[in-house]
Design goal:
This protein is α+β, with helices and mostly antiparallel strands and 81 residues long. The protein contains three helices and five strands, in the order E-H-H-E-E-E-E-H.
Length: 81
Amino acid sequence: MYAVFSDDFKKQMDKIRDKATLRRLRKAVENILANPEKGKYLSKELAGKKSMRITPFRLIFEPKENFIIFHTFEHRGKVYR
């Protein structure tokens, strides 16, 4: 498995200044790559994508056959809009 990061995801990562949050995000990405079954499936407009909680943020990703697309990482109040 390998990771594909969207432009939005890259921009949001560049905005993170808190080192602890960055560390938790990197660990979550590693865990997802190791086990793509992690996370909760989403519905409606986000059907086919999964969400993982990194309090108070959400990481939205989409598992494919050989790779995982990381779409966004935002505060839980904004990510589902």
